Each structure stands twice: as structure tokens, then as C-alpha cells.
Amino acid sequence: MERNFKIAPSILSADFAQLGQEVVDVINSGADFIHFDVMDNHFVPNLTFGPVICESLRKYGVEAPIDVHLMVEPVDRLISDFADAGATFITFHPEATQDISTTLELIKTAGCKPGLAINPDTPLTHIEDHLESLDIITMMSVYPGFAGQSFIPEVLEKLSLTRKIIDDAGENTFLEIDGGVKVDNIGNIAKYGADVFVSGSGIFGTEDYRATIDSMRNELSSI
């Protein structure tokens, strides 16, 4: 089956002084999704942004799917806020909720597509237990908290196992990789089963977004 790869620049590495134009530029350069890394300085040791940024980008005219990755605890209260602000996907960490099923249902009821984010040391049992309810799985290839980290290669085996879980169940769940993705490793990562690629500094840290995304597509074309 032909794989439909998606590239999702993370605005954590964008220039916030001109965020609206940065997002428009990266979409016009070939990006598929826009990725939001939402951190609360509690669940992870950093503080980023909330729903108002998502809402502002929608008002600016951004129509691309917005992929919200909640690194917050507790997670449930923010779901309706991000849904109202225009989120498409909302993912959260199993460790950040008292009941995974309840949180997934909250996301779905709010009109968004639910997902789980899996840290390098988080067991895959959470995916196996809830796969039918997941539209997206975000496999973390760094420990969440900061942009610009290096890819953890040991995650590739876990990524491959997750791809097998999805395929064996006959699901169409997106398998996203988040952390340290760049032109020089995206092709190899794809071989292990990812089909959505979050890249922050790997895109926003380059001079020519179109050239970078085209190079990523070229690496993916041989998979």
C-alpha cells in the first residue's frame, strides 16, 4: 500500500515576532500539518503557549490541520479550549490523565481527532488498549520539554513495533514521529513506519523552507 507521508513543522522553532507569516510561508512551501507543542512548566520543564495562539492563526487565515500536542497536567480542562480555538488533532500523554478513555472521549466529543503521545520510556500497552479510539499516535524520539534535541535512535524499534500493531489491527491511525527529525534522517525513520514527521528546527532553522521540505520529500520518495 502506498504511504501518504505528512510533514508537520513545529512552531516551537518559528519566529514568534512574525508567527502568522511564518506559518503561511511554511504551508506555502509544502507543509501538510502545523504542529503545536503545548508545555505547562509542570508536566515538562518549559512553558510555551496556549489556545489563543491557535485561535489567532485561524483568524489569520491558516486552514491547514493543526496538530496540538499537549504536554500538560491535568490535561482535560484544556481540551475544549483548544477545540474551540480550531485544533484538528489533540494528543496527550497517558501519564497526564487519570483516565485515558475519558480524555480520548472528551477530545472526540469536542470535534477533534484524538491521539496519544508516547515517550521513549512509555510502554506500548497504552496504544494496544486504546487503538480503536486513536486517530494519531505521536512517538516521541526525544524527551519532551525543549526544541532542538537530538533524535534518540533506540526509539526506532519502538516505532516499528507500533507500526505493526496498527497494521495488524487494520487501522488507519497516523503514526507520527516527533523530535530531532531532519533531512538527513527522515528517510531512515520512514523505513520504520512513521508517516507523519514533526520537524521544528529541522525546517524553521533553515534558510529556505521550500528547499528543505522538497529535500525531505525527496528522501521519502524512495521508501
Characterization of the model:
- This protein has 223 residues and is α/β, with parallel strands linked by helices.
- It has one domain (6-220): Aldolase class I (TIM Barrel).
- Helix content is 38%, strand content 18%.
- It contains nine helices and eight strands.
- Strand 3, helix 3 (76-85) and strand 4 form a beta-alpha-beta unit.
- Helix 2 packs parallel to helix 3 and helix 7 runs parallel beside helix 9.
- It starts with 5 loop residues before the first strand and ends with a helix.
- The mean pLDDT is 95.
Which labels suit this protein?
alpha/beta; 8-stranded parallel beta sheet; 9 helices; globular; 223 residues; 8 strands; TIM Barrel; 38% helix
Tell me, rounded to a whole number, the average pLDDT.
95
- Counting DSSP H or I runs of 4 or more residues, the number of helices is 9
Can you tell me the CATH superfamily? Aldolase class I
Give the spatial strand order of the biggest sheet: 1-8-7-6-5-4-3-2
Distance between the amino and carboxyl termini: 11 Å
Give me the secondary-structure category.
Answer: alpha/beta
- CATH class, named Alpha Beta
Named at the architecture level, the CATH assignment is Alpha-Beta Barrel
- Percent helix among the residues? 25-40%
Give helix and strand order, one letter per element, not per position. Answer: EHEHEHEHEHEHEHEHH
CATH topology: TIM Barrel
Beta fraction of the residues? 15-25%
> What's the gyration radius in Å?
16 Å
Number of domains: 1
**Gross geometry:** globular
Q: What is the makeup of the main sheet?
A: 8 strands, parallel
Uncertain ranges: none
Number of strands: 8
